[in-house]
Amino acid sequence: MSHENTPPPMPGYTPPPAPGYLPPPQPPQRPTRTTTVLVAAAAAVVAAVLAAVVTARVGGDGEAEAAPTVTVTQTVPADAGDTVSDSGSDEATEEPTAEEAGGDSYGFGDTIVYDNDVEVSLSKFSRAVSSDYAAPENTPYAKFTIKIVNQSDKKVDASMMTVNCAYGDEGKEGEAIYDDGLDGLPDTSILAGRSLSVPWGCELPKGESFLQIEVAPDYESETSIFTGEVKK
Question: How far is CA 68 from the centre of its chain?
């Protein structure tokens, strides 16, 4: 059969493959630059989140705000050292020496002043035994008053205060006592220029006298540690 009348192929024309023809396998493609860019962008987002977590509190001027720290004054309320012995007679608590209390603790008669102008002090120490309806019941304890004075220009949430106690040379945890007149933390705020007195009770067995009381006016403030002897 003659092909003399077959026109020449047009420029750019590719004839179809013959029946049964399989193209050769293509080599794997290398990752494009888009993948690298996406990975770099994700790493930048993670770094930004971590930086935001580390800088938990930043003021309006862009500088990190430190938690309120404390100073101590030696102002002693008139009833700060009073206590009641088991016999019912009034006796004064004994303040430990610096060696006994440790460099990071304060005496029962000290007033702790935070750098945000919030003050914490303890007073009116006495001994008692919880009632049959208390929690825990029939437990010897030390009763005292925590006073918070708010000299700052912002209110203080008293429900955010923390109180923990330990007693004895081995530092056993003293449970908080909930009894008549000992209701725990108040659900209230202390307005600027106002103060609040909170009665508190901590377990203190009759054979023990050393008491450690840790108080922080809120979650963001440094804990103040008071130590002293409550007469048996």
Answer: 12
